[in-house]
Amino acid sequence: MAWLDYVLPLFFLFPLAAAAVVVVALRSLHDARVRSPLDAQPMCEPGQGLRDRLDRAFATLFLNASLGPILTLAPLVYGMGRMVFSEQQNWLEWALYGALCTLLALLVSLRLIRDYQRIQRLKLGLACELAIGQELERLIRPEAHPYYVFHDVPADTFIIDHVAITPYAVFVIEVRARTPVMAPSGEILDSVTVEHERLRFPGWKERKPQRKARQATSWVRAWLSRELGQQVPVHGILALPGWKVVREVQSADLDVVDGVGLADSINQLRSGASLPSEIHDRLIVALRKRAQHGGSPLANDI
Predict the structure, then answer these.
(1) Secretion signal: which residues (predicted)?
(2) Which of 17, 195, 213, 257 has the fewest CB atoms within 10 Å, i.e. the most exposed one?
(3) 3-state SS assignment for residue 302
(4) Max alpha carbon distance in the chain (Å)?
(5) Are 178 and 91 in the same domain?
(6) Last-in-domain residue among 129, 156, 173
């Protein structure tokens, strides 16, 4: 029966299929997420959202790098099986197997390049998150200075990088990572001009970072108003670590900073009287509850 010449070579693919099953079973090796042994809640550190995305990116790289060669060899192995069971060799068929192997190899290579670039972007974003997180940790003092900092606070459909509670206001800090540009002369162009609705980087312009920071600030302001039953002062900050910020206009609702000395800058932003102790404590309780039980919103853009 002629159809057996095409079915029997499939047995040659069983070792490759077994190897693929082992690779898929080991895909969670890069999952570094841990839970607290005290309350079984996920541990939340600065940049936790990006840490989780980086773990998933490494898992994807592991799958592509391991399954890619297996998939690439599959047409060739099947062709070898056809050679064993077929009485006559069809060189056009072999050319088809070779072309398919080449196409799969090219596809796998492109996916690996994409994974590498994605990991590099996530690493840069995580480095910026950690740098800002370290600056914000300086806000934490003894009881005489009641400051509190939350990282990766989940909103409805996105994650807020940092929320800092001071005796005077609540600060929403969003972090964005961008790579400075190198000029043909070798000079590093690392100055960004801040307009009211956009950022002018060397060679390109962006509106999304400011829009996202304002969105996060508005969400926190509205959510705290619902939780506490009254308005509390909420200020937005957009941090661009590694960039020299040039302010063309001064925005009243959003400060754009480079992150250096961020804790001191927040201490100096004292608009109005101190928050009542009861309101301050309720803010901490509400945000702590939100950070622990806020669900799993979508990931932020970097």
Answers:
(1) none
(2) 17
(3) coil
(4) 92
(5) no
(6) 129
